[in-house]
């Protein structure tokens, strides 16, 4: 397997999300941290929206953009797909626009969510009162660039793993509900 390491800034354009106030008449989802769980999965639909203006239009997410949280207590990445509907990331996120001839967006997401990458980022962001990774540090971070087929397989494995976790969590909730119903009936 051929593996070359490249800095994120070589394989993706990096910019910050938009800092703005939601607008009750807005039509474009404004993605906020509270919509995601710690693994970077959307757990709720957008409840904040903004309008498209000359200032905001440049911040519209494109298919395959990877959002990365580099501030605060949570550290994760998430790959945006157009099927989510039009959206703009808030300023808590770095927006990585992968060069798709070099890197598959879901592979980049899986790599950034991997325990090894998170541990390395924790080291970079330590020593401050509020955890924060600088854009230059993110840009210099090295990513192994595997053949595209291998990248897609790793991305598929990460997705299957997340689906399995979700199913296990649903099963636990159903078992808890069943136990509660049975114990309540027995106690009556």
Describe the protein.
The chain has 188 residues and is an alpha+beta fold. It has helices spanning 8-11, 54-57, 105-113, 115-125, 135-140, 148-187; strands at residues 4-7, 12-16, 28-31, 49-50, 66-69, 77-79, 87-89, 93-98, 142-145. It has a single domain, classed as Adenine-n6-DNA-methyltransferase TaqI, Chain A, domain 2 (Alpha-Beta Complex), CATH 3.90.220. The protein is built from 6 helices and 9 strands. The strands form 3 sheets. It has a 4-stranded antiparallel β-sheet. α3 packs across α6 (148-187).
What CATH architecture do you see? Answer: Alpha-Beta Complex
**Which stretches are poorly predicted, pLDDT < 50 over at least 5 residues?**
none
**Going by CATH, what is the homologous superfamily?**
DNA methylase specificity domains
- pLDDT average, as an integer? 90
Termini Cα gap: 63 Å
* Rg on CA atoms, Å: 19 Å
Helix and strand topology:
Layout: E1 4-7, H1 8-11, E2 12-16, E3 28-31, E4 49-50, H2 54-57, E5 66-69, E6 77-79, E7 87-89, E8 93-98, H3 105-113, H4 115-125, H5 135-140, E9 142-145, H6 148-187
Parallel strand pairs: 3-7
Antiparallel strand pairs: 1-9, 2-8, 3-4, 5-6, 5-8
List keywords for this structure.
188 residues, Adenine-n6-DNA-methyltransferase TaqI, Chain A, domain 2, four-stranded antiparallel sheet, 6 helices, 9 strands, 39% helix, globular
Give a quick precis of the structure.
The protein has 188 residues and is α+β, with helices and mostly antiparallel strands. 39% of the residues lie in helices and 19% in strands. The protein has a single domain (4-187), classed as Adenine-n6-DNA-methyltransferase TaqI, Chain A, domain 2 (Alpha-Beta Complex).
